[in-house]
Amino acid sequence: MRTQYMFNPIDFGFEWSGDWYVFDYERASKAALAARSKRAKELKARGCKVGLYTLKNQLITKGGIGSNHPEISQIVNVYVLLA
What we know:
By secondary structure, this protein is α+β, with helices and mostly antiparallel strands. The protein has one helix at residues 25-45; strands at 4-7, 15-17, 20-22, 51-64, 69-82.
């Protein structure tokens, strides 16, 4: 059985700032891609077969009802590692 790892730029740079948010897509995307590359290198060193993919234009939503934050939607590329 293979394991799938997802590296979402939202997890690498989205922050709530008061009633709004801060998100630098370019910086977060580079950080997510670097994290995927680092993990791929670690797995390859252990002899795992690794596949790298990109899921383009994924709609990611943060906040919304019950979160005390407005609903924010971002379209991002999510980086995938299959090992």
